[in-house]
From TrEMBL:
Entry-linked Gene3D superfamilies: Collagenase (Catalytic Domain) (3.40.390.10)
Lineage: Archaea, Methanobacteriati, Methanobacteriota, Stenosarchaea group, Halobacteria
InterPro entries cross-referenced by the UniProt entry: MetalloPept_cat_dom_sf, Peptidase_M12B
Species this chain originates from: Natronosalvus hydrolyticus
Any GO MF annotation of the entry: metalloendopeptidase activity
Record's protein name: Peptidase M10A and M12B matrixin and adamalysin
GO biological process: proteolysis
Peptidase M12B domain boundaries: 108-245
Length: 245
């Protein structure tokens, strides 16, 4: 792919204190920007797929979504969680917001995608407005759905897309209990915030935050939703944050 921007190495000062959060009126325009590690940027077609999934998952009547590619970021490793866990990616975003860095962060969501492994947790990490996640090779092989309101098959690629949306959800204030689990044609369907936790032995929630009960038998077959649950949407309609006024 053509390298449009190169942001230099991630900030080396480990600090989560460089981000200043602002409060706005509930937003009518959501600004979402994704960035690629060097490893992630090697996959042809990844930009188009990530854009399509972010747009497809986040387009709701209560706001319009502006998704853009922010550039390529040099990272010490391709791990999905490290950029946020070490504070480097939040630092880079914070520096960009104050005009001191090369990055041009978005107001609402800044997600850095690496080629990190997706089989062992943590595969990503999020704080308000900032996230990182691995799985570029799986995202690069996604088929773009024609209808995002239809459940997707449970594949490595589709699950990786859902985990990307999961981390994006966290950046907007969503928690795991905003996720929904339901029966659909004899199978178990999960929305991004609960995702594969639904099949984790240690997952013991019996209902979502809004009180909808989860089915207890979830063994029959797995389906993935790339849209957020009604409970999550209740929270998103009240979203009033941002890194810039
Ligand atoms: Zn989570």
């Amino acid at each position: 792919m053509k390298r449009r921007t190169f942001l230099g190495t991630l900030g080396t000062v480990s600090s989560l204190g460089t981000l200043y959060y602002t409060t706005r009126e509930p937003v009518s325009e959501l600004e979402v920007r994704f960035f690629l590690s060097e490893g992630a940027s090697d996959y042809p077609g990844i930009e188009r797929r990530v854009s399509a999934y972010l747009e497809g998952a986040l387009e709701y009547p209560f706001w319009s979504v502006d998704v853009s590619m922010g550039g390529i970021v040099s990272t010490p490793t391709e791990d999905g969680a490290d950029p946020v866990r070490t504070g480097r990616w939040p630092f880079t975003v914070g520096a960009g917001i104050t005009g001191m860095g090369d990055a041009n962060p978005a107001r609402d969501v800044n997600v850095l995608i690496t080629d990190g492994q997706m089989s062992k947790a943590p595969t990503g990490y999020a704080i308000p407005h900032v996230a990182s996640v691995g799985g570029a090779r799986h995202l690069a092989s996604l088929e773009i759905p024609t209808d995002f309101d239809v459940y997707d098959r449970y594949t490595r690629s589709a699950l990786t897309a859902q985990i990307l949306l999961h981390e994006v959800g966290h950046t907007l204030g969503l928690r795991h209990e905003h996720g929904h689990i339901e029966r659909h044609e004899g199978k178990t369907a999960v929305t991004p915030m609960v995702s594969a936790y639904a099949w984790d032995d240690e997952f013991d929630a019996t209902s979502c935050r809004c009180g909808t009960t989860y089915p207890t038998d979830r063994d029959a077959g797995r389906l993935l939703s790339h849209r957020f649950s009604d409970c999550a949407l209740e929270r998103l309609t009240a979203y009033a944050g941002g890194l810039r006024p």
